[in-house]
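Team,

Forwarding the record for the chain on the shared tracking sheet. I've put the sequence and predicted structure together so nobody has to dig through attachments.
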Amino acid sequence: MINRALINILSTIPEMALMHDWWMALVASTFGKIICIHKPTMYYRQHSANTIGASKKNIYQLAKILFNIIFQKNYLIKSGQQAQAFLSIYENKLSPKLKELFYVRANFSKYGFVKRKYFFLKYAYFRSGLWKNVVVFLFC
């Protein structure tokens, strides 16, 4: 669910957004806050064609994540493009500190190995789940 304040600031969802709900969460967390409603408001249907969803992680899925990070760097590139799109839309509304964070994220895949590790820790570019963070840190 989103409120009127988010609708008012959400000018567009660009093509570079990884997913529309992630984009809205990024805008909401940058300019407002995200709260959790603990009461279910709808049913969630999981099916085999879901792009993303609740699933148990097995060795195949972890290997796929590792492959994407090491060989394709797909997540780094796409999330960098998303950060660049965010900057192009909202840069004039960001504090200098947030501008720096988004600029670094937009250019993350262009930095050398050691600099990426430094920025990973400095800006806490963590993902959900311990193993994803270990893999991303070691191989990004």
